[in-house]
Amino acid sequence: MQVHPARSVECDGFDVRRGSVHGDTELFIGSAGGGRRTNSLLQERAAGMYSALPYAFGQAAKFFWYLFFMYFTLLYFTFYGMMAVGITPNHNIGSIVSAFFYAVWNLFAGFIIPRPSIPVWWRWYYWACPVAWTLYGLVASQFGDIHTPMEDPKGKLVSEYLRSHFGFKHSFLGVVAAVVVAFPVLFAFLFAFSIKMLNFQKR
């Protein structure tokens, strides 16, 4: 069985990861992904693998996961910005603090360096990084349940490649979803606490 070229070789795994988090997500999963999945459906229906209805439900579940992770990611970024302004004396310092942490989050999200390649003494920050959980959720929900081989000499399954190279498991999706929900709740609580307890006004 052939896998579509977008996920058929290891180097394309990096392109998938890049598209999942940075800006191209809507285009990648929306316009391009729809055509690819339709082609897969037609090929697999012709082979008698499954009917259209289970396929449609499976794609609907993936779409739900995509919306879920994108919604809560936007939510925690919003609440984080509010929290950063709330715990600092003014919005200028809040912007500087936010920019610093956005850069650190991007560094430890597993986007530039996958989690298994991060030195052990820095992995704790990977697990504390909200963007790492978003990346985990997006990639694992869309590709973690694909058990077709890739077109490379090793012949790894897509799900095995995600596990070995990125450390992503589809079975861990529930925990990832709970953590992604917890981040906006935490940031909203800290924002509310900061505006109630901290006073930077000078008379």
Automatic annotation (TrEMBL):
Mode of membrane association: Multi-pass membrane protein
Presence of the UniProt keyword Heme in the record: no
Main location: membrane
GO molecular function, one term: ABC-type transporter activity
Domain of life: Eukaryota
Classification via InterPro entries: ABC2_TM (IPR013525)
Subcellular location: Membrane
Regions crossing the membrane: 63-87, 93-113, 125-144, 172-193
Keywords, in A-Z order: Membrane, Transmembrane, Transmembrane helix, Transport
One GO location term (cellular component): plasma membrane
Presence of the UniProt keyword Zinc in the record: no
Domain ABC-2 type transporter transmembrane: from-to ranges: 60-143
Protein's name in the database: Plant PDR ABC transporter associated
Organism: Musa troglodytarum (fe'i banana)
Upper lineage: Eukaryota, Viridiplantae, Streptophyta, Embryophyta, Tracheophyta
